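Standup, Tuesday
Yesterday: got the pipeline producing structure tokens again.
Today: sanity-check two examples.
Blockers: none.

Example 1:
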Amino acid sequence: MDLKFLAIRELIKEADDSVATISEKGGPIDIDHPMAQQLFNALAAAYGRRSALTHGSFNEENSEGYPFISNFEQFIQGPADEQKFLTLCDQALAQLAASLQQPSARSATGGYAIFMYYSSDVFDFLLIALVRDKTGVAFDDELNPTKVTEVDLEKLHQAARINITTYKEGTDSYLSFIGTKRKGDITHYFSNALGCTDVVPSKKSTSDLIRASEDFCRQNNLHERQEEIVEDVVSYLSRQRGEKQSAYLPDVEQIFDNYIPPEQAEKPSARFGKFANSEEYQVSHEFQPHTSTINAYTKVKTKMDNWQLDFSKRSLGHLHTNSEIEFDAQTNSLRINRLSTKVIEQLKSALEEGS
């Protein structure tokens, strides 16, 4: 990762106070300073570890009500420079201060607003985070315990990250922000100040969750039970959709926890929520299931007098489509492809016993 610009400012507000002020302290930070790099690495890593990110976009339908959106668009026009970056920081701070003074944010407190513009792989990012102090213990010269105050980078109270590269490309989901882990409860003052919404097309969220489920099975030695697991995930989505309820990533993680062997459960890679919430899949903590996408993964059950079939609809295709099960409309027959070794042996054994 390559840090390009860094700025730190302070928002002052006590809980139950209706006034938020911007401190005169702070400003641009020399990115070549060793502590600046340490701060950058710690903050980026802390954000990357969060598994309750909400993915979304800017509220384009009401962009006039959210000045940060137009300010951000001005910032990304042409080459980025520090002055444009600092102007954007000032504008964002003003919006955050105004949002903190809303009645709904009365119990919220201020903190240190950290702004980072950086690149990672082929992407450019803008990360805005609000962190607070914590009290720790240190030893003085005589090894006496003494109280110290330090910034708590592990607990990101609020943060949002914009993938500038994908935003310019017009991708559906280019923005993520931190919410709480409780269902239906997202602290809105921070995301509202920046014009963030959790609106990702439900079709994309649903298909990305199913794709993440399949990939997770393949990467965690669950391939033999993949069909069963994915079927459980789809059944959950179908049930939530039928009850007109949102789908919740922790609920889906619980489905996977029921299948993961105890010896694997403690491995960080065994947490499905973090896997699906990552940059590759961007499945939000909460989303609306998409009906037609769910239906595409539901099962087809049919039978004749002497046999019956039970398979996922996504396995079915027309002849020469390389689907697992192909239907030949000319001969009204089925062709089953890519049989497992176990199935092949069962079929051979059955034929030998019948001869």
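Example 2:
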Amino acid sequence: MTLSTVRGEPAAVLAEAAARARAAESRERLRVRGGIALLGAALLLFWEYGLGFLVEPRYVSSPSEVAVRLAELVADGRLWGHIGVTLGEAGAGYLIGIAVGLAAALLLVAVPVLDEIAGPFLAAFYSIPKIALAPMFIMWFGLGLLPKVLLAALMVFLIVLANTMAGVRGIDPGLIEVSRVLGARGPTLVRTIVLPGAAPAVVASIRLTFSRAMVGAILGEFIAATQGLGFLIVRSSRQFETATVFAGIAVVAALVMLVNAAIRAVEARALPWSAGRTRG
């Protein structure tokens, strides 16, 4: 047996093990996707044929009626206007909330005494039901886009702030002390230690808070609006157009899923090691 043969055997074993692992991972993905498909089909079938025995049928509609109504809204063009308005409000609030949340978190990190002072007030504000603020925002800022954008920004801001602070507090204090001993101070410490350490929590919160931005925008539209998916849903519910209500809800869910998938794809390319979890 030659030396090259001996060296080649471990490589072959490793290659075989990697192939088995990839095959097992592929089978697991297929099982998960199959399970998702089966569960979704079961829920739709129950909604179509079984839910009417538990709830008044005209109040729950059915998947077939919702699909027909959704096709009608798409065909007459009204749906696109509502989608554009809600996405504009949620998108603007999302970006504002991220920017302000990150800036506030970095400020609190840089000035610990400020964190101690502001902490109780932030905790109290976080506990306030945001739906209670929607009418106040409408009264303060009018009936236009601004109150919806601010509501969306508020929903995003609180979660980005909380998770950034949690990510920073999760950094090993010994690492920070060693960095300070080596001369890292202020912005240098934040740039080289704090931000990389908190990156998983920050990125996860950025990815998952778009749904909160949509909630904030739609809450504002529920209170006072003439366009948007929230307006479509609440107007249809008042007129007992159940199929239209569920069609609007389905569109909101689909938009959030699409945007989250796009953000996740960007995250996977930019930060492939990130696997942070978020709270909120």
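Quick observation on example 2: Confidence is low (pLDDT under 50) at residues 275-279. Residues 3-49 form the longest helix (47 residues).
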